[in-house]
Each structure stands twice: as C-alpha cells, then as structure tokens.
Specification:
Elements lengths: L2 E5 L4 E6 L4 H10 L7 E4 L5 H12 L3 E3 L7 E4 L7 E2 L1 H4 L9 H8 L1 E5 L12 H9 L3 E5 L2 E5 L8 E3 L5 H11 L5 E5 L5 H12 L3 E3 L5 E5 L7 E4 L4 H14 L1 E6 L7 H9 L3 E5 L2 E6 L9 E2 L11 H8 L5 E5 L9 H7 L3 E5 L2 E5 L8 E3 L3 H13 L3 E5 L2 H6 L3 H6 L4 E5 L1 H6 L2
Parallel strand pairs: 2-15, 3-14, 6-7, 10-11, 18-19, 22-23
Antiparallel strand pairs: 1-23, 1-24, 3-5, 4-5, 7-9, 8-9, 11-13, 12-13, 15-17, 16-17, 19-21, 20-21
Helix pairs in contact: 1-2, 1-7, 4-6, 5-6, 6-7, 8-10, 8-12, 10-12
The chain binds uridine-diphosphate-N-acetylglucosamine.
Length: about 425
C-alpha cells in the first residue's frame, strides 16, 4: 500500500494549477447517461474516483474515450445496454449511486446497489428516493439494492426538501430533466457544483432555472442532445492548498481558483491573519512571518463553511495562537482526523459535534493513518509544518480526490515523496 513521507521544511513558494472539481465531474459523468449525443467534458480531473465512474458507465453501455492522463473525456450513451449497477461497483464510491436517476429517466427502470463511500457517518439516500417517488417512480429496496421503475416515464413534481442535501438536489435534477412537466425543488442546495451540473444539462437542451438559489425549476424536455462542457475548478482542492500555504507560510498562487466559490474560507483565513488576494486568474495566498490566530468555524451548506474543508482548517488551527471551536453540522462522525493530528502534537478535544483546538507552537512528525479523503489531506498539511518526518499511511483515500498532490506541493518546495506499489509502477 502506498504511503507519503513528508519532511516539514518551511514556506511554500510558487504556482499551483487547480484541477476540475471531483464532486462536479462525477455528477456530470452520470449526466452523460441522459444524452443521446456525445457529452465531452474538459478539465476532467484524473482521479481514482472519476476513472472508477468511467468504468461503471462502460458497464452500462456508454462509449467512454478518456486516454490515460488526459483532461478530455468523451462519453456517448447512444445505447444503454444495462440498467444494473452492482454492489461491487457502487460500494467503493458513493457517487456511483447517481446513475439511478438518469437511468430511471432515460430508460424507465434501474437497479442500483445502496452506496458505500467515505466512513464519515451514516449517509442515507432517503431524500433521493422520496424525490423519485414524488416523480411517480415505484421504488423497492431488496437485498441491498434499490429497484426503481417508471415505465410510463417520470412526471414533474413539487419537492420541498426537509433539509439541504447536495446529493439529493443533484440527483433530483438529473431525473427531472426528462420528466413530463415541471419540477420545482425547494430548499435546494446552492453549491457551485449544482450550477455546474445545471449549466451542462442546459447546454444539452435541458430547461433549468434558479440553480444557485434555494428554488430550482426544471421544465422537462423529451430528450437531451450532447455538449462540450468545462468542469468547474475544484473549490475544495483550491481551499486545501490555500490552507496549506497559510499553514506553511510563503506565497502561493492558486491558478484557476474561484474566489466567488470560497467566500467562507477566505473570510476565515483573513481573520486568522492570512493575506488572500483575489486576482483575475486565481487567488494568491501569502503569510510572511506573521503568526496565525485562532478562528471559530461552523460547517454549513454553501455559502457557509464547507464540511470538505473542516479537517484541513483544523490542521491550521492546531498551530494558531489561542483556542478555536470547530463545529461540524453536516456529518456526525467527521472528526476521525483529530486523534491522528494529536499524534503530531496537536491539542484537540472532541465533544459531540465540536472540536476544541488549543493552538500549540509546533507539531512534531510521526507516523499517521489516513482515514478518509479530506482527513488524509489535513494530515499532509500538518506534516508540512511539523518538525521532522511524518509518514501518512493508507493514502489511497488521497488518490480518490487529489490529482498529483505530491507533484503540485513539491513544485512549491515541499519535501514530499511517495513510496509503495503505484510509486514503483508509475515511476512516481
Ligand atoms: C456532502 C456535503 C458536500 C460534500 C460531500 C462530500 C453539504 C450540505 N453537503 O454532500 O458539500 O462535498 O458531502 O463530503 O455540505 N442526508 C439524508 N438523506 C439523504 C441525503 C442526505 O439524511 O437522502 C443527510 C446527510 O446524512 C447529511 C446531510 O443530509 O447529514 C447533507 O448530505 P448531502 O448534502 O446529501 O451529502 P452529500 O451530497 O454527500
């Protein structure tokens, strides 16, 4: 199994290009099932998760052309040959569950295993299924599989989500685009990835308005064509590198990062004493000499502070002056990085959904274990500022969501090396 060895060694200096967003790309890939003509995605992130989704699509009959290492992926769902997504494929990655809605809308039935994914607490899909039922689908759950049918097609519905769910909003949108009549989604998620999906679907002929607000209207159309669409820049990757630069100090330009998607983080970084400059082509993060001060954060749906940056921010706060409270409101079990950060010398007490972080003057390298995707990268950030060497084990989590992480950080001066099977086979 691969691991990363990181030597804490001072400031980061340089430029980091931001990749296309994983969380957007996966839903855009699922959208290809709705399109009768090719959907071409550019700025596709080359990640274990997006490659895995491509394999699932091939299994369903989609022609996928995506040469290794390339950022352009062409998907053509001229003939869907299977409507079954088996357990083995869905358990490894939760987003694969999102093929259910498109298959149901396009073919009229689908059988998809209930999802697995990151171990960050119970992650139900009841809101997704309720939305399909409201659109007239018959749903049965048998032996871990969701069997859904709408043989005469889905019909538009008025759906008021009891709370904000990114997954359910996207999934309902993916089904409603081909339903008869209008669907209204209220209390919808407003994450930038939702707008990216809506913009791509609209380019294929869908009629979606209101995305980016809490009320989305979708006028069903008979069919979708295809389009060429550029995947939105990954705000979580950009935010992660911003936090890394804030922690290590120095001057890093995040090329392609979109300030409008990162308001809550930019605000928290500035309050912590970090300089964030918004430039026309990205964001510049600077911290030269000045210390960091403790800041409280509360995770919330967009435009609030993203749950996907909570672990990384905790790593930053572990070396800030003072005490910060970090409250996780989206997932109930998302503090697994706290004990690992403590192994590096951080002083963190977890009480329910709150972590109290007392800043320490320095961290010290140690072997640690990656537990989930965002937790893993928080350990990398802590390791960049820790004295001595840290080894992060089980980094397959990292490879699910960060493209060429060690190369991007390495170019800015970080001392970070990979060892293990894939490092040997790819010469990394
Ligand atoms: C969530 C995050 C998203 C992040 C992703 C991966 C929010 C609002 N969502 O999206 O930003 O990128 O994790 O870490 O920040 N829920 C139900 N029933 C459902 C669906 C969801 O009870 O059918 C609950 C979840 O357990 C969770 C909350 O709703 O407590 C929000 O979940 P949701 O936004 O759907 O999760 P993801 O789409 O995975």
């Amino acid at each position: 199994m691969d691991k990363l060895s990181i030597l804490g060694n001072g400031p980061l200096e340089g430029r980091i290009p931001i990749s296309g967003a994983k969380n957007s790309a996966l839903k855009l890939q699922a959208a290809s099932l709705l399109c009768e003509e090719p959907l071409v995605l550019t700025s596709m992130p080359n990640l274990a998760d997006t490659r895995f989704m491509a394999d699932l699509l091939r299994n369903l009959g989609v022609e996928v052309e995506w040469p290794k290492g390339e950022a352009l992926c062409r998907m053509h769902a001229a003939n869907i040959t299977s409507t079954i997504a088996p357990y083995d494929l869905v358990r490894k990655m939760r987003a694969t569950f999102n093929v259910l809605g498109p298959l149901l809308a396009r073919v009229g039935h689908a059988t998809v295993s209930l999802p697995g994914g990151c171990a960050i607490g119970a992650r139900p899909v009841d809101l997704h299924l309720k939305a399909f039922e409201a659109m007239g689908a018959d749903i049965v759950i048998e032996e871990g599989y969701v069997k859904a049918a709408a043989l005469r097609g889905l019909r538009g519905a008025h759906i008021n989500f009891p709370f904000v769910s990114v997954g359910a909003t996207e999934h309902a949108m993916l089904a409603a685009v081909l339903a008869h009549g209008e669907t209204i989604l209220e209390n919808a998620a407003a994450e930038p990835e939702i707008s990216d999906l809506a913009n791509c679907l609209n380019a294929c002929g869908a009629k979606i308005t209101g995305h980016g607000t809490s009320t989305i209207r979708i006028q069903g159309v008979a069919k979708l064509t295809g389009a060429r669409h550029d995947v939105i820049a990954d705000r979580i990757e950009a935010g992660t590198f911003a936090i890394a630069a804030a922690a290590a100090g120095g001057n890093v330009f995040l090329e392609g990062a979109r300030a409008e998607d990162l308001g809550a983080l930019i605000d928290a970084l500035r309050r912590a004493g970090v300089t964030v400059e918004v430039e026309s082509k990205g964001l510049r993060i600077k911290r030269n000499g000045g210390g960091l001060v403790a800041v409280d954060v509360d995770t919330r749906p967009h435009p609030g502070f993203p749950t996907d940056l909570q672990a990384q921010f905790m790593a930053l706060m572990s070396i800030a002056e003072g005490t910060s409270t970090i409250r996780e409101n989206i997932f109930e079990n998302r503090f697994m990085h706290a004990p690992e950060l403590s192994r590096l010398g951080a002083n963190i007490t977890v009480r329910g959904n709150e972590a109290i972080v007392k800043g320490v003057p320095k961290l010290k390298g140690a072997p640690v274990m990656a537990t989930d995707l965002r937790a893993s990268v928080s350990l990398v950030i802590a390791a960049l500022v820790a004295e001595g060497e840290t080894t992060v084990n089980r980094i397959y989590h990292l490879d699910r969501g960060f493209e060429r992480l060690e190369e991007k950080l390495g170019r800015c001066g970080a001392k970070i090396t990979r060892s293990g099977d894939s490092a040997r086979s790819s010469g990394r």
